[in-house]
Design brief:
four-stranded antiparallel sheet, 12 strands, Rossmann fold, alpha/beta, 266 residues
């Protein structure tokens, strides 16, 4: 495989803009997402995070600019078209049905059948168990456990498993640890990291800077609909991230883009 192919981003937004009437939600956004990496998208309320993920997932079409998938220009007009490419989004509401069990939720709308006559329960159970095992989701007592009986962290794990069950290449997660306790947050962040380690591209949207710096390889910062910085997480810190989110710039970034070192006062 050539170096060019190896370094080619899975998804690229090229000068993407989106307006809602007189409101410019996204302005000239450039962003790359790569396989095997967690890219955190951060920004203050109203910065454009939700519009960005909805544009990628086919809910909103860009007014200008181009989306590239595996190097090819694409138009993503519906969530179904996004799924066909290999893009799945886990929104904050998770879209799980409490009255169904784990297997039924994973295959909802995509049930497997025996020649179209009856549900192939055995095949669905096998795939569900394999997917959960591959993600090291070990805390559920049974794949036939009703979703209503699961903890918040377990529900998030099921939603992520549902996203990766269908030959998914990019998983977008909107505030996956919101309202979770410490132990459940650690479980979900571990799952996020394992997705990237398995070769998926992951986009993480989060207000929690501890979570962001725990798992992100790269951090993209939105300010008033514009991407004002995309840097390796190792080249940033929490204060720089907050500066960029709230003002669009940071005096603590040195000219080479790394976090400026504090002066030696000894």
């Amino acid at each position: 495989m050539s170096t060019e192919t190896e370094t080619q981003p899975l998804l690229r937004l090229d000068h993407v803009s989106k307006n809602f009437g007189p409101v410019q939600a996204l302005s000239d956004v450039n962003l790359e997402l790569r396989a095997g990496e967690v890219t955190a998208l951060i920004g203050d309320n109203g910065a454009g995070k939700s519009v960005t993920i909805k544009t990628i997932s086919g809910i909103h079409g860009p007014d200008s600019g181009q989306i590239y998938w595996e190097g090819r220009p694409v138009r993503i007009r519906t969530p179904r078209e996004a799924s066909a490419l290999g893009i799945e989004t886990v929104f904050q509401d998770l879209a799980l049905c409490n009255n169904l069990d784990i297997v039924q939720n994973l295959f909802l709308g995509r049930e497997r059948t025996n020649h179209g006559l009856t549900l192939d329960e055995e095949a669905m159970e096998k795939s569900a168990a394999e997917t959960l095992a591959s993600l090291a989701v070990t805390t559920v007592r049974s794949i036939r456990q009703p979703v209503a009986s699961l903890s918040g962290g377990q529900r998030q794990s099921v939603a992520i498993a549902k996203a990766v069950l269908w030959n998914t290449k990019l998983v977008i997660m909107d505030e996956p640890t919101a309202a979770l306790g410490v132990a459940q947050t650690a479980m979900v962040l571990g799952l996020v990291r394992r997705l990237a380690d398995r070769g998926h591209a992951v986009m993480l949207i989060s207000h929690n800077m501890n979570d962001v710096f725990e798992v992100a390889d790269r951090i993209a910062v939105l300010f008033l609909g514009r991407v004002v910085a995309v840097r390796l997480a190792a080249d940033m810190d929490r204060q720089i991230a907050v500066d960029l989110m709230t003002t669009g710039q940071s005096a603590r970034l040195s000219t080479n883009g790394h976090a400026a070192k504090e002066p030696d006062r000894t």
